[in-house]
Amino acid sequence: MKWTKNADNWVAALVMLPSVILIxxxxxxxxxxxxxxxxxxxxxxxxxxxxxxxxIKFIGFENYKDLFxxxxxxxxRQDLVSTFFFTLFFIAGCLSVGLGLAMFLDRSPKxxxxxxxxxxxxMSLSFIVTGTIWRxxxxxxxxxxxxxxxxxLPPGKFGWLTSREQVFxxxxxxxxxxxxxxxxxxxxxxxxxxxxxxFRRRALTALASAGLLIAWAFTLGSSVQLLPxxxxxxxxxxxxxxxxxxIWQMSGYTMALYLAGLRGIPEELRExxxxxxxxxxQLYQRIIFPLLAPITLSAMIILGHISLKIFxxxxxxxxxxxxxxxxxxxxxxxxxxxxxxxATGAAIGTILLILxxxxxxxxxxxxxxxxxxx
Length: 374
Hints:
By secondary structure, the chain is mostly helical. It has 15 helices and two strands. The relative contact order is 0.14.
C-alpha cells in the first residue's frame, strides 16, 4: 500500500513537471527579468537600445523616481490618476447595472431566457470588437451626437473620446497626504473587524497605526513635496465613452454572478422575513445584500484586475496616441516598443504588476484560508 502511494505521488509529480517548468520560465523568470531591467538604464542611449550586445548599467530605482517625480513624466502620473478613476467608476457601474439586471431576472419575468441571453451577449465579444463598435457610435462628429438631429434638434457636441476637460482635479504633491489617509481608513476598518471578531491585540495594533498615520498626515504630510511646482491631475471626461463600452460588456458577468447568488437564497428565508413584517426594502437590506457580500467581493477583485491592466479596449476605441484616454498599459506599449526606452517601460510594467498584486494576493490568501478551515 505504501509503495502504491509513493508511486502515485511520483506519477503526479511527473505529470505536473512540464507545467511547472513552463510557468517558471515564461511567467516567473520573465517577471524577474522585467524587474531587473527596470533597475537599469537600458534604452537611455538610443544606439544601445536594440543592439545585439547592449551596454547596460545598473542604476537602482532611478527609473521609478523619474516616473513619480521627474519633470517630463507627467503623462505617466496622469495615467495613474486616470486608471484610479476608471477603476472606481468601472467597478461601481458594473456592480450596480449587474445587480439591477439580476434583480429583474430574479423575479422570473416573461421571456427570462431571452433577456438573459441579451444581457450576457456582450460578454461573449472580445474587447477589440467592443471597442470597434463603440468607436463608430461615439465619433465626436457622428454616431450618438447626431441622434438629436433626427428630431430636428442641433447635433450634440460632446467630445466622447477627445475631450480634454477634467473633473475631480488634485495636486500631485498631495498624493502622500491622500495615500496616508486612505491607508488609515483601511486600518480603521481592519481594527473594527478585528474587534468584532474578538482579536483585540490585532485591533489595537491597527488602531494605533491608523492614529499615527492620521497624525502624520495632518502635521508633516502637507510639507512633503514630490515636485517643485503644482501639477494638477484629474478624471478626463473623454473616458466616459470608454466606461460606457466597458460597463456594457462586463455588466453581464456581474449579472450572472448576482443571479446565481439570488437563486441560491432559500425562498423559505424570504418568506420568514416577510412573515415577520419586513418590507421588500428591509428584506434586501438586512438579508439579501449581506448574503451577496462574498459575490460582490469576488466581482470587485476580477473587475479591478481587468481595469488596472486594460489595454485592448482603449487601443481599439482611441488608439495609443490619444492622450486624453491614455492609461499605464498604453504608455508601457509606447515607451517600450515605440520609443525603445526598455528600462522605463519595464518600470511601468512592474508598477502595474504591483498594483494588480495588491488586489489579487490578499483575496487569494483569504480564499486559501477559508478552504483550509473547511
